[in-house]
# Entry
Amino acid sequence: MDNDTKKLLGITDPNLKFPDHWLKAKQDRKGHERLEIEGTLTYSPAACPNCGVINIKTITRHGSIISIYPFGQFRSQPLDLKIKTQRFYCHACHSTFTASSPIFDPQTSITKDLKHEIILRLTRVESIKDIADDLGVSASTVQRTLQSLADEITIPNHNYLPKALCINEFKSMRVINGAMSFIAVDGDRHKLFEILEDRRLYKLFEHYSAYSMSARRHVKYLVMNMNAAYQQLAKTVFPCTKIVYDRFHIVKHLNDTMNHVRIHVYNRLRRGNTEE
# Structure
């Protein structure tokens, strides 16, 4: 397989090797024809992922396994990746592990690109069966992907809070109990941390009190606007945090104050009153 074909298919991992005749046709259990890309995944590991020992002739090859990953569809035909994956043996900790690739996550049966495509299709008004038929996977695969998203959102880790927690409120939907919703961003990773339906103070107390004390002590900076309720939250829930006012809100307050002064001076001069 040449480099242009790899780029077209999105399988640019240099550790994946493909023979000259890499495309095969086969039939599944129901008699439907599927296309299959055959390849080999192997490399020399730098260290053992289990014990961390550096590979100085301490890790040897230990056979291989064949894994088949659904890869979506090509010209309305289901396409699979059939990868012969190298296994390794660590002589330091006497454990085995399998070669990994950024194309697919460990302990999953589909590629990352296909998972992203399923997630994108789940945002539309489509049935699970239609998504499965269009992408050449089973309905249970689509359901597992949906369940994995639900688990990531609904099961928070109460033992972790970021060192820099950036918080604010926003208008979300009419049906929520409070007037505004609450958003928190992980300032360390620059990623969305969580969204809460209600930003009222007692709701925030209930939510963050469920986190362990070690997690709450880990929050060193609370980046926020000048909402007094958030200051009470910081003093009560996060004992080791320092309040940092968001520069956007500081500039906004300065701009509002300058506009207030400007309008006051303009109205005074318009009325011909120069003594105030």
